[in-house]
Amino acid sequence: MSVSRRKNEILIKVIVYVLLVISSIIILIPIFWMLSTALKEDSEVYLFPPEWIPKRIYPNNFIRALTFLPFGRYFINTSVITFLSVIGQLISSSLVAFGFARLKARGKDLLFMLVLSTMMIPSQITMIPIFVLFKLLNWVDSFKPLIIPNFFGGAFFIFLLRQFYMTIPIELDDAAKIDGCSYFGIYTRIILPLTKPALATVAIFTFMWNWNDFMGPLIYLNSREKLTLSLALSRFTGMYGMTAWNLLMAASIVVALPCFILFFFAQKYFIQGIVITGLKG
User: Fold this and answer.
1) C-alpha to C-alpha distance for 71 and 77, rounded to whole angstroms
2) N-to-C CA span, the chain
């Protein structure tokens, strides 16, 4: 390897690392500002020019934020909705994706394209008809509109899992059939154990979407005791005639912690699932 080529590779690496560092700083600035604001006293929040590091730290803001509203009740509501949604999405999407990837049926590819085409429909178009349907079912002001749809699968997750299934050799299915294994046995004993990265990706996406969902609970939940964490955060707006930004930021950090923790421990499976899924179309 020539000296000039070696220098070019080092220069490229330096540029890449510098860009990554700059990008990381840009991403971390809002998080740092959120933490800084959460630890400020009420009057210090509105200082101009703003101070990045508070003169005095007020960790009591977290206690004030969590006691201002019944966050324990809202945490349970959000956890129930999110947990059941993740279970429903994993079961339904994995089954439908297995059918598209492994079963032989006339018009299967056309039906798969029809499922994918639903991703192009803006959610605003179906919002009113779905609300009318759930109102006729007397599901408004309950968790059902937020949970039950996840048991019918999602087009994106079906596509993601189907692409992952396509990377698994079909010879494993043939060997299982020779041993007398049914299609459901192939699904449970062969496919699912080999698709943990993709399933983890689906679980993470579903968890983050439902945990942070604001529009769904805003439309369907009316009772105060049934609110979710995302709706509870909006209650800090207009408190005492103005927004208590330090309390809002403190509560936001607590609400965001489960997502950070989940992604930190599951990022290996998440990245692996995304990478492997894109290997075969």
Assistant:
1) 10
2) 37
The ranges assigned to domains in the chain are: 3-38, 69-277
Does residue 50 carry a pLDDT above 80? no
pLDDT at 242: 67
Q: Please say if the pLDDT value at position 35 is more than 50.
A: yes
Q: Smallest Cα–Cα separation from 37: which of 258, 231, 236, 260?
A: 236
Amino acid at 180: G
CA distances to 13, 33, 52, 114, 258 from 62, in Å: 42, 15, 19, 48, 16
DSSP H helical ranges for 149-244:
155-165, 171-178, 183-186, 192-194, 196-212, 215-220, 229-234
C-alpha torsion angle, residues 175, 176, 178, 181 (rounded to 10): -170
Query: Which architecture characterizes domain 69-277 according to CATH?
Result: Orthogonal Bundle (1.10)
Q: What are the pLDDT digits (tens) for 187-220?
A: 888 888 888 888 988 998 999 999 999 999 999 9
How confident is the model over 65-84, as pLDDT tens digits? 888 778 889 999 999 999 99
DSSP state for residue 152 in the 8-state scheme = G
**What single-letter amino acid sits at 200?**
A
Structure tokens at 225: 């005791």
Task: Kindly report the pTM of this predicted structure.
Answer: 0.82
Task: Extract long-range pairs of 236-245: CB within 8 Å, 24+ residues apart.
Answer: 236/65, 236/68, 239/68, 244/42, 245/37, 245/45
Higher pLDDT, 225 or 238: 225
